[in-house]
Design brief:
This protein is an alpha/beta fold. About 40% of the residues lie in helices and about 25% in strands. Strands 6-5-4-9-12-14-15 form a seven-stranded parallel β-sheet, with helices on both faces. The chain has a three-stranded antiparallel β-sheet with strand order 1-3-2. A three-stranded antiparallel β-sheet has the order 10-11-13. Helix 8 links the parallel strand 5 and strand 6. About 40% of the residues are buried. InterPro entries: AgaR-like (IPR047779), Carb_Metab_HTH_regulators (IPR050313), DeoR-like_C (IPR014036), DeoR_HTH (IPR001034), NagB/RpiA_transferase-like (IPR037171), Tscrpt_reg_HTH_DeoR_CS (IPR018356), WH-like_DNA-bd_sf (IPR036388), WH_DNA-bd_sf (IPR036390).
Length: about 270
């Protein structure tokens, strides 16, 4: 039995949060039932069926009689904290960052998305001169404190502590009057058909705005993020100009990227 307060909470959660919770149930249980979800979230069965239809379209679930089953290779993982991400594949992220930072030349205007790989890029920019960097990442801005030749701009907005990133209308508006040479975009998931995606709707919206104001979109990610899909799409894969990743990327993903016109730079593990 749920008390009245918990029922009220479930009534007011948004569509995005409800779908994220449905995904978590799918991951934990392997399947969900429409009637159970309807009762739990205090919404109609029509609303739940729409949620499941959306998740099926994203390749996350497969509809079944009375509910849905998890769709395995593209099950989104739950979002780890920045601290957790920082401890994963650190040497690999630094190798990717070394390749990325070589692309930044004097006079360039650059966006560094929030994230642990872009943080490693920022750490390597201490000797750069005459570069402007815009970021929505608190950790990225802190890493640039030592880069005396880099002018640092921040988007501002609401701080999301899980990712140490800023988002919201203020962040979106801070980008709209600028034009940048390149965007270095960290990703939670990338799939050739479903595109680049992330866990959080607000971050996805801000990332899309970043893509709109950047001449080149450069994705920096390790190969484990391929053939995965998160809930909120950022852009189609075909819009990426370059991917910097490690040599463990699958042959199919590598071929698919190149066939789409994406330049791929590989680093060794």
């Amino acid at each position: 039995m749920h008390n009245s307060d918990s029922v009220t909470d479930k009534r007011i959660i948004g569509t995005s949060e409800r779908r994220e919770q449905i995904i978590q149930r799918l991951r934990q249980q392997g399947s969900v039932q429409v009637n159970d979800l309807s009762a739990f979230f205090c919404v109609s069965t029509v609303t739940i069926r729409n949620d499941l239809a959306f998740l099926e379209k994203q390749g996350i679930a497969v509809r079944a009689y009375g509910g849905a089953l998890v769709c395995d290779p593209l099950v989104p993982v739950s979002e780890p904290s920045v601290e957790d991400k920082s401890s994963l594949n650190t040497s690999l992220k630094r190798s990717i960052a070394r390749e990325a930072v070589e692309l930044i030349k004097p006079g360039h205007r650059v966006i560094l998305d929030s994230g642990t790989t872009t943080y490693e890029i920022a750490r390597l920019m201490r000797q750069h001169k005459e570069v402007i960097v815009m970021t929505n990442g608190m950790n990225v801005a802190n890493a640039l404190l030592e880069a005396k030749g880099v002018e640092v701009l921040m988007t501002g907005g609401h701080l999301r502590r899980q990712s140490l990133s800023f988002y919201g209308d203020q962040a979106d508006q801070s980008l709209q009057n600028y034009h940048f040479d390149m965007l270095f975009l960290g990703v939670d998931a990338i799939d050739l058909e479903r595109g680049v995606s992330t866990h959080n709707e607000d971050e996805a919206r801000l990332n899309r705005r970043m893509c709109e104001v950047a001449e080149r979109i450069i994705v920096v990610t390790d190969s484990s993020k391929f053939n995965r899909s998160s809930l909120h799409k950022i852009i189609d894969t075909q819009r990426i100009h370059m991917v910097i990743t490690d040599s463990d990327i699958s042959a199919a993903s590598l071929e698919g990227l190149r066939r789409s016109g994406v330049e791929v730079v590989l680093v060794g593990k």
